[in-house]
Amino acid sequence: MSKSADSDRQIQEQNQHTRGRIAPKLPATRTPMPRSQVRQRVAVEATDRSVRGSPKPAFSSSRDSKHPTKRPGTLSDEKPKGKIETSTKFSSITDSPKSSAALRQTIAKAKAAHRTGSTFPNAPGAAFGNDSFPEVILSGNNSASLNKRIRSARMDGKLNIAAMGLKQLPAEILSMYDMNDDIADGSWAESVDLVKLIAADNEITYIEDSLLPVGKPETFANGEEDSQGLVLASLENLDMHGNLLRTLPHRMENLQCLTILNLSRNRIDNEDLKTIGRIRTLRELHVAENMVKGCVNHELYGLSRLESLDLSYNAITQISRGIARLSNLHTLKMAGNKITSLPADLVEVTALKDLDVSQNSLRGSLLPVSVKRSISLKIIDASFNALDSITGCENLKIPALQILKISQNRLTSLADVSCSPELTTLVADGNKLASIPEGFASLTKLRNADLSRNDIRHVDDHIGLMENLVVCSLANNPLRERRLLNMNTEDLKRELRSRHCQSSASNKENAGSGQNNDEKEGEQGELPSNIWSIQAGGVVDRSRSNIADIEATDLQGLAESGSVKTCLLHHNMLPIVPLVLDLLADTLVSLDISHNKLQGDKYLLEVLCLPKLRVLDLSANAIGSLEPLLSALTAPSLSELNVSRNRLVKLPELRSHFPLLTSIFAADNSISDLSFESVRGLQSLDVKSNEISFLEPKIGVLAYEGLRMFLVDANIFRVPRRDIVEKGSEAILTWLRSRIEDDA
After folding, report:
1. What's the predicted TM-score (pTM) here?
2. Which domains does the chain carry?
3. What is the SS3 string spanning 305-330?
């Protein structure tokens, strides 16, 4: 056989290997080609075919050709027809320093051809194109996900297409109820009207008119129905926050079933509020973080059914008169604007309960002088303004007020707060208050008070008698007694209560003896440390008496009197909880055994029944477990437990044993795990300075069940971040709830 025939057979064998995507063997004298270079070569050739439209494999040759195409860079330098010059020689790709630039240039050409709408018949590089051009709005998984959600929406009337990268509302919504729809699953007869549409966090810039009904519902009843836009005609809830909307179509006023509209974080302006003002059925309207300027449109005041209005973080400078026409409005949020004053008409909105005007430019008085009473207001937030006073009226009465936030203003005094007996939270830090507000100690329901960073110099002793007060912050005030600044709330109340009791006893003795105070001070001496006596208010104070044990005879006389409500045994040497305290069970309400020698899990050895006990303080001991409380203490009325500064490693579920427990203080321990069940049902929880590594997102939901104070500073978890933790309990719980939504 001739040499030419042998050569032809060798070339055909090489081509057969090439058609099978197997690189032919190179001559022994050459270095074998690396696999990465083979993949690079195949990718280039696939790109060439997508540009030229050639369906031929990279190294194929025609069987009818007398001289088959040689593998580039092996037997011949002849260039295959229809190929790009940059891919003719394999050696140029593997050896040339310009090969990567040539590859990028080729890919760029392919992308340009795709953008111009070129078609590639029989192009084997289709998979390569799909990976490189993810610019189609609904393709692949996005399209399948949309179809799945539309099928579900036909059954429950709720369509969620949030965070899908949409540029506009999908046209598939218009045909979601069509009988011949290719995504129908045979359950058309069970379909319901679309009542809720969530299209938040996309990139939608406009809403097409074709998606909205042409006329109002009354025109449909008269037989003038136009089928266009009827899919959204029954919509009750539309959420499009976090998009790029610049304008709203006029047809939106035809959505006369709409009750909730959320357009926050878009780019709409005052003209669009006019369109919104014609949707008379609205009950909730959210237009925060948009481009609304100047005065609030009068058209909004025609929404007589509106209950909640959020216009926060715009550039509004004035709330015009006439807002009283919103007779059903109970929530108004105008934070983060440029408002300088509030109209008197605002308080005349008889249903208004929640008013947020924080972070504005309010000056002078928050409420006009003409306002003397507000019946419905429960929450006022006027923080971060330049206010000098709450009102110019001396006798302002807001009887239903529960939360008052006036941080970071210029207040020098507050009106008599006793006119708001329902007040539970007072936040007035960062002002210029010279004294504790008048009537402060009479607020029996007050739980949280922040008066830090003011000019307060004296603290009223009556604060020690405020049983429900959980948090009272006086930090960064020029108090005459500096040591009070370093006390926590319980220590502060205890100190003030002790002073008040001593002052009351001294006054009674002075009145009985007819002597003046100076003479009495010279004659009065301290009671012996071994005497048990009842002070004013039913207080038995045996603190700092080096007591290591208590005998039944010590408490016998006290028990017979039936008037002991508070027993102070802190700063002693007690190794266990005294069981003789059950002699005081009928009347004992508060028990303080902090700063003693309680250790481990052996501090309560037998059953102790205290049915009236509401406050128990076991802080600053060496307790390692709370199991003895669960097994040996019977206190069905217990509402507050302080176990701070111990050696706890776990916080068990306590409410199953103490059903009325609402406040737990467990700071400065070694707690590593905080479960949802251990927090559930609480109103206040302090677990600062522990070793908690993770917060369950479900805890955020407990805000709806009454959790108001949730302190988790100085733990070892990484999320939520420090800036969120420093914002306080509300920010932490909100962040935890958002994690649940993200996981869903």
Report:
1. 0.53
2. 3-121 (no CATH), 366-483 (3.80.10.10), 533-650 (3.80.10.10), 671-744 (no CATH)
3. CCCEEECCCCEEEECCCCHHHCCCCC
